[in-house]
Amino acid sequence: MSVTSSxxxxxQAVQSSSVNLYRAVWRWHFYAGLLVLPFLIxxxxxxxxxxxxxxxxxxxxxxxxxxxxxxxxxxxxQMLAAALAAHPGTAVKFxxxxxxxxxxxxxxxxxxGKLAVxxxxxxxxxxxxxxxxxxVMWTIRYLHSLKYFGTYxxxxxxxxxxxxxxxxxxxxxxxxxxxxxxxxxSVRGTPKKRVFWRDTHAxxxxxxxxxxxxxxxxxxxxxxxxxxxxxxxxxxxxxxxxAGVRVDVPMSGNHLNDVAKTSWSLExxxxxxxxxxxxxxxxxxxxxPLPMDSNPTMQPIGxxxxxxxxxxxxxxxxxxxALPSTPTGVYSGSVYPNDLSKQRVIHxxxxxxxxxxxxxxxxxxxxxxxLEWGINVHMGQxxxxxxxxxxxxxxxxxxxxxxxxxxxxxxxRPKGSLGVPPMPHDRTVFRGLLLLLIIGGVIFPLxxxxxxxxxxxxxxYLKLRPARLA
Length: 470
Prior knowledge:
Layout: H1 3-50, H2 53-60, H3 62-65, H4 76-86, E1 90-95, E2 104-110, E3 113-119, E4 126-131, H5 136-144, H6 150-175, H7 194-219, H8 226-235, E5 251-255, H9 256-259, E6 270-272, H10 277-285, H11 302-312, E7 320-322, E8 330-335, E9 344-349, E10 355-360, H12 366-378, H13 384-412, H14 430-443, H15 445-464
Antiparallel strand pairs: 1-2, 1-7, 2-3, 3-4, 5-6, 7-8, 8-9, 9-10
Helix pairs in contact: 1-5, 1-6, 1-13, 6-7, 7-12, 7-13, 14-15
Keywords: Membrane, Transmembrane, Transmembrane helix
InterPro entries: PepSY, PepSY-ass_TM
Organism: Agrobacterium bohemicum
């Protein structure tokens, strides 16, 4: 055999291996897109809108969110009384106006459900009410998280996130330059030609791929299985509070997420108890009997003194106060502004007004800080307007990716066929790809389950349509 012939056989073998690997990657890129793109379009539209939640809420609900600046705020108790007079029930939360032109929000539990009652803080008059979390932006948020569709539908977030990462990884391989003169950072052809949509898809994907992976990972804390388990693992001890935060106080069975919107890291944080007469007596008699003439009866400090105490402690404006509903309940003040360093939760004893637990972002552990930072960027808050604009562009690019993929597939698809990319002749090239998929499935369990389903469907497709796959 000549040297030239040997080189030629080796070159052909390398080319054959490369073609087989390309087909394998292309096939799974197609499957990942088929599974994920519908979710990505929905997430991109709702996420892009939610980036501007404050601005849109102020515009859409200007009649109940915005007020004219007056002399000074009336007492919080007066606002509560006005809200309850208009909507009889039980006040469960008071939200401080975040700006001078903002209204106060009183959450009232009525026989017909919870209401958000908006009050002018300068006059104490009721503006209007909505169902609790009934603003347009809360609707967008619930659509984004698939909360409207039940627990099982929310598991799709984890599946979509994991497959999005696969989509980007396989997309980079398919994009990688292979002696072509276009389609790397430029777009060839016109919209009438398939190459235009191929290049548009590839170039857009390579520029936003990093952001897709980032958004997928930082969106995982809200997923049904992975997010819940990581939250439990990260915050499962010390009553859900980071190590170093004082928790040597009586705790209730309620969690912070049950009474007020909170950060991901504090969803499992238990709420402490106020020191009631019975509790004090029990604790003291364990050491020495109380004198017969002692009278430790205590009176609640009330919402006005609680607000004054939160202000003294430096809680950032716009904080929400969950009101005590039992003799052992506490005033739980919490605020989660764009500036992570100002995130804070304070629980006040409802009788003494003393803070039982006072913690902020600086008290979180390394994992909590990292995840909260990622979530803050994900929501467009960490870097202000620049953060919003960049992620809005990314959301538009994701929609363009999905549209270009659909058009490209339609132009390539053989008539009467689904147009699945051809199976490689040498199927051993799937081994490395499957290994990566299995690793991803171990990290994200629901992704692993969906992988098994996709493998079964691909096998079934091969059995039913063998002639089309040659």
